Structures are given as C-alpha cells and as structure tokens.
Amino acid sequence: MMLPYPWHKALWDKVARVEALPHGILIHGRQGIGKLHFARCLAALLLCSRQDKFRGACGSCSGCHFMMQGVHPDYVEICPDEEEDGKKMSRLIKVEQIRDLGEMLSLTAHQNGCRVVLIHPAESLNISAANSLLKTLEEPNPGTYLILVAHHPGRLLPTILSRCAQVEMELPDRQEALGWLELQGLSQAENWLERARGAPLLALKLSEGEDESVRQILLEGLSKPLELNVIDLTEKIMQVERGKIFSWVYFWVMDLLNLLAIGQVRCHSDRREVLASLAGRAGRVELARFAQQITESLRTAEHPLNAQLSLEEMLLDYRALFANHPVS
Questions:
Q1: Residue 150 is inside which H or E element, if any?
Q2: Nearest C-alpha neighbor of 5 from the set 147, 171, 212
Q3: How many Å from the N-terminal Cα to the C-terminal Cα in the chain?
Q4: I need a surface site. Which of 40, 93, 238, 318 has the fewest CB within 10 A?
Q5: Which of 159, 190, 208 is the last residue of a domain?
Q6: Which DSSP string do the residues of 35-49 spell out, in sequence order?
Q7: How far apart are CA 141 and CA 133, in angstroms?
Q8: Counted domains in the chain
Q9: Residue segments in the chain with a per-residue pLDDT below the cut of 50
Q10: Cα separation of 203 and 179, whole Å?
C-alpha cells in the first residue's frame, strides 16, 4: 500500500476523504517535503478499485498492481523531457507533451472509470503548454483528474490557479522530521535538516548526493580564506549546479553570523572550531551584506550567465571579507 509520509497524515485525512474531489488539484509548497509522493498516493487512491479513504489505495487490486509496476493505462505523469542528446534535462514541459494527452483522455477508462494525469513541476510548463492545459481544465472529460505539483505556484498562469483546488503543504514539525531522518539511519540529522531549511526529503537527498565530496572541497577552501586560490577552487567545484554552490556558501556565512549573534553553529557543527576562528575576523555588517548578495545571486542562479565568472566573483568577495583581518 502506498502511504503518505507521517507528517502528511492530517493533510491526507482532509484531502483524501473528500466525497467528490475536483478535477483540477494543485499541490504546492517547499521543495523536499514530499509533495510529489503525496500526489502519487492520491493518484493511486483514485485508481484503486477497493480504496480505503482512511488509509489509501489497497495495494492488492489490479489497479494498484498496475500502479506499482508503472504501467497503469489510465495514469500518466508529465515532467520535463530529456533533450535529444539524452544527457541534459529540459527545464520546460513542452506543448507537444500536453497535446499528447488528448488521445488518452478521449478514450474510455480501462479500470476504475477514471483517469489521472500528474504534472510536475507545474511551473515548468512553457506558455503554449500552459494554455493547452488550460483548455483541458476548463472542459474536463468525466472522470478525469489533473493533479499539478508546484514549488512556486506564483509562476503559474492565474487562469490555471483559478481552476484548481489548491492544497498547500507546510513544512513538517521539526522534531517529527528529525525522528523520521534518524529512522532512515541519517547521522547528524539536525545539521542536514538545517541545511535543507526544514525539508526532510531534501535533507536526505543532500546527505546522499554525489556532490558531497565537492561540498567538502569548497568548505576546505572557505576555511582558509587568505590561502584561497579562487581560480583553482572554481575549477574543482563548477561541475556542480551553481545554485547549490551559492547555497553552501550562504549557510557557511550564516553560521559565522550565528556565532557572532548567539554563539551557535547550526549547519556545520563538525567545523565549529574553524568557524569560531573565523568569526569576528570579518565585520558583522560586511558578512550580512555578503549573505544578502548571495541571496540575490540565488534568485538568478539558473540564468545563463557565465557560471565560472560568477563563482570566481563570489569567492573573491568572500576572500576580501578577511583581507584586513589575518587568520590563523
């Protein structure tokens, strides 16, 4: 049986027990809190022939078996396609993907009398795809459910928002999230959860990511700002998504500011001694300005600027914070 995460129980009880779900549903909230899994659980419930709304899909009927094998004829997921070279992922859902829905939705449902389309992340719909989807939302076929999942619902067309019932998913309780992460065997769960800003799935992903070795290289460089070789370090880290690198530096600087303000380290407890030696060597105002600068850079991290140049500039600015304050 496919069940929502523990921190979704109250929301699941509210949504799944609705007698007649609307044809358009938008699930939105922070990244890494389980929105997509919740949407898949809801899709499984709708396609289950022996559904139990108190718990979810039964897990044993033919519809559930099809879902678990990923071959349900009345279910489709739409997300950005791979590019033609098969190596890069498109950032957008294209209009052709939405138009292809027409054939499926015009057919009679095979199983439980309904069809479910899951679109994620919905804000990646290009304008033509969004307009095409709008037509389906305006005139839904009987028994058709469109479930949209979005990290940033404000990027969707207002007309799409107005035709969907919105389900806002909040961050789980911190202790509940920590308890779940510890059950997954994650060491230093509190640190990882802090880095993920309270999102447990993102915390787990960060801890398991192949980028962790690169993060450690970056932190070694940040630990010795006056010895930092900007060009060399940039070459070692630039294969990682730029937004991640900006985030890593941001949390490092926030720990410096936290040490100055309240004497605590939240994200890098394993490097507290190094942080303590750096705290105060740069002015608090300068650190705060640099943190704000990184925040602004995060907003444009996906913009097709010269990645190497932007990383080098950030590292140069970081090194300059300590230029007038010798460190050991």
A1: strand 144-150
A2: 171
A3: 57
A4: 238
A5: 208
A6: HHHHHHHHHHHHH-T
A7: 13
A8: 3
A9: 83-87, 304, 327-328
A10: 13
Residue 91 maps to which CATH number? 3.40.50.300
Q: How far apart are CA 328 and CA 149, in angstroms?
A: 49
Q: For residue 281, what are its two tokens? A: 């060597």
Name the residue with tokens 């705290």: 279
Question: What burial class does residue 161 get, using C-beta atoms within 10 Å of its C-beta: 0-12 exposed, 13-18 middle, 19+ buried?
Answer: middle
Tokens encoding 250: 């941001």
> Could you read off the pLDDT of 180-197 as tens digits, one per residue?
999 988 888 888 898 888
Residue written as tokens 């139990």?
A: 52
What pLDDT score does 328 carry?
Answer: 44
Both 161 and 184 in one domain: the answer is no
| 65 in the same domain as 154 | yes
Amino acid at the residue 80: P
SS3 227: helix
| Residue with token string 């959860």 | 193
Domain that holds residue 92: 6-170
Q: Which amino acid is at 293?
A: Q
Residue 86 within any structural domain of the chain: yes
Q: Is residue 268 part of a domain?
A: yes
CB 275 within 8 A of CB 238: no
